[in-house]
Predict the 3D structure of the following.
Amino acid sequence: MFGIDVNHLLQTWGYAAIVLLILVEDFGIPSPGETVLIAGAVEAGQGNLNIFLVALVAFAAAVVGDNIGYTIGHYGGRRLILRVGCRVHIGGHHLATPRRLDHAQSFFDRYGAWVIVIARFIEGLRQLNGIMAGTLHYGWRRFLPLNALGAALWVGFWATTAYFASDWVSRLHGTYRWTLVGGGLAVLLAIGLLTYVLGRRLGEAS
């Protein structure tokens, strides 16, 4: 998706790769920050990295990156963000367009502090979180602790989940791969059939 071999970067640069990819993602540069966090935690689960250092550097990079974004938004404003963001793609879409910025602003206007905490879990908002807060002149003294809380929750969730799932991930390349794939396909098929049947019945009832 990003054209970046995260595993190779981790093997070559270790913790520095986690810092770099998360840092630049958080002030708007397309980067697999969440992917490298998960991959780093998996590597820690397999004994190649220290999970506490993975979490620590990821947290620090996330907070610093968002604060760089906040500064860009605060001093650059909407015009600069649109000028630069419209040239940058992430997930196949422009990073910043008037529509995306309006959507992010509506989140801030409607939910306030909650947006800063949960934005890190939402693709698009994760990259625009700090920039939008700065652009809207959201108070930095309020932004900093809320942003740190969101970063802690985000890092804690993915680092813990990936760390304890590392054995399962490694098995995907071994004996259990096709069993897991087959089981997943069976579950998807069952969900599809159930949705179809329910849709038919709801259609007949209406």
Remarks:
- The chain has two domains: 6-169, 172-206.
- Strands lie at 89-90, 93-94.
- The longest strand covers residues 89-90.
- The CA atoms of residues 104 and 110 lie 10 Å apart.
